[in-house]
């Protein structure tokens, strides 16, 4: 099949690679489909979900319900469990055949493995860990021929219609970089779970969604690895992304780590069904495991209530929690930056304040 990623005028439609594990959709798919819907409407193009796996056709309509116009199913026994070579081969085959303009992939472990492989094979650009996506509808001036000295008088330009503007934190989160991929297609982007908002499910849209079964071509020669067995980790991981109440602790608990974590648990319980999160300082120190980390390199969360105990409010921490519905911060330094994004700030020692908060909540509840 003829494929040249620089012939950008041949590419159309917005695609979401929809990851499934053991026939279960990942929640990020619905977030990306909802976001992709907005981009497709703005761009005037179709939104297509692509699912790879085995016996997975039943998953298609669910994506339709969140806004996909069409779902492409790639079903093969070799795709039952994720392997880099099988998924890269099949996904690139479909991309080369159908030429999407944009490909969005969830930044899960699998997405982070698959996306760069595909980008390299397709000879296009990839922006990883995006936190915001937008279509640039203003005409963008694109270089098509540039002299080696970058002499603008010797440079030819062409006006290009649209580009996907992919925004992500750069330089340790101190600035947000907006990146475009003007010369090659598809524009590829990975997006972290929890960053985009999942839209409403519509039964009507689910029924209207078109499904295409794509003929997969893959044989033993395409595969370098074989999954013999999948062993699930027995450890219980904290579900920060789905939590409605999160009580996070920071280095401010260092005076008595055990008691600090215990107080956070009690406060989370007092609110009702809350979970404990933490800053990177706490995770790096080994006081909580990595699945508790909130922030740029941890989880992005949007709970109804986020309580920050002894957390200074570094930009990288705020990046993961500032869109929470209600933020309560407790910090003994009244100038701590966490107070800038807090709805309620309490200045003082968390070891004195948290027991009072717990008592007050219990009192109100009784
Ligand atoms: P500190 O900054 O040390 O703050 C402790 C706070 O506790 C202080 O404000 C202090 O006043 C207060 N305090 C102390 N004792 C008490 C007490 N008894 N009662 C009340 N308050 C008290 N950080 C993250 O959290 N998540 C990330 O994902 C993340 N990613 C990063 C990525 C990069 C590339 C980089 C460079 C950094 C990242 N960081 C991240 C680290 C971040 O910059 C901060 O270092 C970190 O968030 C600080 O954690 P902290 O607020 O717990 O600790």
Automatic annotation (TrEMBL):
CDD domains: ETF_alpha. This is Acryloyl-CoA reductase electron transfer subunit beta. PANTHER family: ELECTRON TRANSFER FLAVOPROTEIN ALPHA, ELECTRON TRANSFER FLAVOPROTEIN SUBUNIT ALPHA, MITOCHONDRIAL. Coiled coil: none annotated. The lineage of its organism: Bacteria, Bacillati, Bacillota, Clostridia, Peptostreptococcales. Belongs to the ETF alpha-subunit/FixB family. It comes from the Bacteria. Signal peptide: none annotated. It holds the Pfam family ETF. Residues 14-227 form the Electron transfer flavoprotein alpha/beta-subunit N-terminal domain.
């Amino acid at each position: 099949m003829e494929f040249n990623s620089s012939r950008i005028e041949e590419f159309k439609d917005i695609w979401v690679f929809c990851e499934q594990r053991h026939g279960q959709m990942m929640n990020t798919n619905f977030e990306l489909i909802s976001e992709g819907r907005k981009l497709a409407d703005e761009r005037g193009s179709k939104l297509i979900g692509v699912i790879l796996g085995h016996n997975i056709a039943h998953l298609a309509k669910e994506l339709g319900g969140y806004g996909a116009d069409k779902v492409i199913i790639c079903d093969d026994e070799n795709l039952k469990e994720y392997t880099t070579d099988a998924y890269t081969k099949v996904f690139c085959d479909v991309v080369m055949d159908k030429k999407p303009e944009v490909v969005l992939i969830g930044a899960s472990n699998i997405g982070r493995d698959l996306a760069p492989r595909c980008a390299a094979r397709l000879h296009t650009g990839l922006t990883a860990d995006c936190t915001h996506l937008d279509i640039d509808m203003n005409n963008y001036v694109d270089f098509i021929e540039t002299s080696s000295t970058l002499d603008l008088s010797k440079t030819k330009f062409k006006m290009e219609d649209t580009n996907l503007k992919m925004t992500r934190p750069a330089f340790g989160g101190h600035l947000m970089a907006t990146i475009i991929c003007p010369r090659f297609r598809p524009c590829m982007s990975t997006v972290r779970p929890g960053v985009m908002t999942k839209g409403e499910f519509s039964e009507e849209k689910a029924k209207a969604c078109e499904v295409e079964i794509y003929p997969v071509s893959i044989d033993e020669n395409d595969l370098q690895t074989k999954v013999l067995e999948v062993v699930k980790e027995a450890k219980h991981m904290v579900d920060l992304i789905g939590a409605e109440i999160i009580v996070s602790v920071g280095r401010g608990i260092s005076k008595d780590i055990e008691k600090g974590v215990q107080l956070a648990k009690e406060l989370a319980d007092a609110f009702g069904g809350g979970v404990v999160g933490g800053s990177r300082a706490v995770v790096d120190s080994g006081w909580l495991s990595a699945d508790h980390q909130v922030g740029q390199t941890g989880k992005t969360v949007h709970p109804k209530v986020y309580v920050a105990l002894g957390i200074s409010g570094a930009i990288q921490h705020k990046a993961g929690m500032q869109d929470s519905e209600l933020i309560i911060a407790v910090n003994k330094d009244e100038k701590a930056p966490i107070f800038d994004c807090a709805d309620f700030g309490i200045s003082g020692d968390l070891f004195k304040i948290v027991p009072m908060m717990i008592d007050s909540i219990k009192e109100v509840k009784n």
